[in-house]
Amino acid sequence: MTGSFPPGSVLSDGSRSDGGYRGVPGTGVAMNQNDLHMWRKTAFLAGVIVLLVLAMAVSGCVSSQASGGQERKENNESPVVPVGSLLENPKAYDGREVSLTGKITTECGSGCWFFLDDGTGTVYVDTNPGNFAIPQLPGKTVRVKGTVTSTGGDVAILATMVESGGKVYQ
């Protein structure tokens, strides 16, 4: 490998002609070629691990994708409640199952939550506790069935079913 190069010359592949020490980029640490190769492998694997952890954290919202929206008829209907009534008296509905109808105004990119506006108010609807998600439906009118939860004055619906255009997601 030394060939016609003077000892200690840096070759085009980044190695040294005498197999000597070389610095780790940006650290000022000197190490031989085997150590440098191991450092690069470790840095690459650490990057892959970080990306996997981030992907798993983000996929918590995605992991429970919709089951295809099979058409189903609901026989046991919950009382249809205007959102305004929920917002005016959240304690009266806390823990109760209700049905709501309205338009989706804002939606999670993964379909795991959305805001529903029925003209009397807007409420947060979470599908994640029901272990399902819906496709992107912003602006669409949907029917939601779920349990009302009220914490610190904030009202939310923990959805067990969302129906849109004859398709039921649950």
Q: What's this entry about, in short?
A:
The chain is 22% helix and 29% strand.
* Low-confidence segments: 62-74
Widest β-sheet, arrangement of strands: 3-4-5-7-6
Q: Provide the structure class.
A: alpha+beta
Cα separation of the termini: 66 Å
- CATH class category label of the largest domain: Mainly Beta
Strand count, sense and barrel status of the largest sheet are: 5 strands, mixed, barrel
CATH topology of the largest domain: OB fold (Dihydrolipoamide Acetyltransferase, E2P)
Shape: rod-shaped
How many helices?
A: 3
- Helix percent reads 10-25%
Number of domains: 2
Computed over alpha carbons, the radius of gyration is 29 Å
What's the name of the CATH homologous superfamily of the largest domain?
A: Bacterial OB-fold
Annotation, overall tally of beta strands: 8
Mean pLDDT, to the nearest integer, reads 78
Classify the beta-strand content into a percent band: 25-35%
